[in-house]
From TrEMBL:
Pfam families from the UniProt entry: SSF
Keyword Transmembrane: yes
CDD domains from the UniProt entry: SLC5sbd_DUR3 (cd11476)
Protein name per Swiss-Prot or TrEMBL: Sodium:solute symporter family protein
Molecular-function GO term, any one: symporter activity
Record GO biological process: sodium ion transport
Superkingdom in the source lineage: Bacteria
Amino acid sequence: MSLSIGEKKENVDGYMVSNSSIGFGMSAASMTATWIWAASFYAAASSGYKYGLSGALHYGFWGALMILFIYPFGRRFRALAPQAHTLAEIMHARHGRSSQLILAGSNILGSCISLMVNFTAAGTLVDMLTPLSFIQGVVLAGLGVLSYTLWSGFRSSVMTDFGQLIAMILAAVIIIPMIYFTLGGSELFVEGIHRLTPEQASFFSKTAFLEQGAPYFVAVLAYAIGNQTIAQRLFAVREDLIKPSFITATIGYGSIVIGLGMIGVLALLAGIEPMDGDLNNLIPQMASTYLPPFMIGMFFIMVLGSLSSTADSDLAALSAIVMTDIYGKNIAKGKPKASTMLWVGRMTMIVATVVGVVFASLKLDILTMLIFVGALWGTIVFPVIASLYWPRVNNFAFTGAVLAGFAMFLVVRFGWLPMEGAVGIFFELLSSVGGGVVIGLMAFGFLGRTAGLIAGTLAMAAMLPLSLNFLRDYPVLLSSLTAYGVSTLVCVGLSLRNQKRFNFDRIAERVVAFQRSPH
């Protein structure tokens, strides 16, 4: 597929965003395939196994909702900068270098971690289902993805996403029911229900919501705004097709991932213990134990398809960031050479693949990494959105908000201060503000400013009495909401001091295509 679309002289803008001309089917399929990554397979099943029925639902539902969440803001991004390649590029036009590099740097970090996670998952799968070792599996995954993405970049990623999604859907429709019936079908629920705690057996588990659902909800909100793989597809799809593409991707993602999460629930009901106590082994263990050889091959294709679709998206995202935000805007000062940009993009992919393969050997927990990176991006969400709606936000407010939010997140997440007494109450108040911000932004995106302010205020007021002397027991959620709250308060406070108004028409003048046609 990649060879069929390759061109001898690639167009720079086509290499990064397909000249903003992707149609409905390709766009929706690519968004769905990209959002279904290693975490969607391994962590969804882990969540179902750990938290039971509501764990599987939390993971799929909130992730799907965040795909839907981005489209109203995405239309604003495209209206301001029709020819954008990265969100950081828009921030450069809005604020300047420091805001741009903060966003670009966070995206580089996030995509490298994502590559590492996907290569780790591929290595685990190969190690369990083939005679090859974990390291060999990691290396093969890296080389495989690089081989078809290197030449045509983002265009290759989108084209192969379509085929990978079809393979994933077909495999999931067959494999998940087969595991269910092999384990006993409906009798499994009757015989295994005693293995579930009351919380695991409930669709409305408080523990699952506070430890999994709410932190993941907050994290993927940040992913929706801060992740270049999502923004890249937003900039690539035809502007009139943004809404239907994202709605379709929302439904597709939720359906597949909730089904994957139920594999963890089935393992819990059957009393299966994860190999070596590692929840990341649960899905390949279930496949190798309960599927016939042919279906193991189908499963192998399904998982590798999901890993590859996200890994190639990360490579395309990293190349676009380095091409646009590092070389194009800073090194070449807005006057880059097309041939040099393509060379920079391809070298970025090679270096990123090596980095991902090397660090994949750490085999870190996927669910923890997902929440951690999402919380890092949480400090950026409000400053980014506010910058593109409120003309008083300036570079100082943006930078100060992100740095302050990130610092306070670290304090809470790593326990640098004891969450007791006045200190605990202080951070719980900040987290209540963060909760109001999350709800307010969602309402603002779909219903407008007034609805956003009302919903955010009501959510914050409702959270205040509930969070005191309570949220400190849930450090993941507390740290994530604190990041939102602090960055919002600092951004608003510093912006109110600024009396200058930014003319948003200047963004489109500053963000332009690098190359009109291949030459």
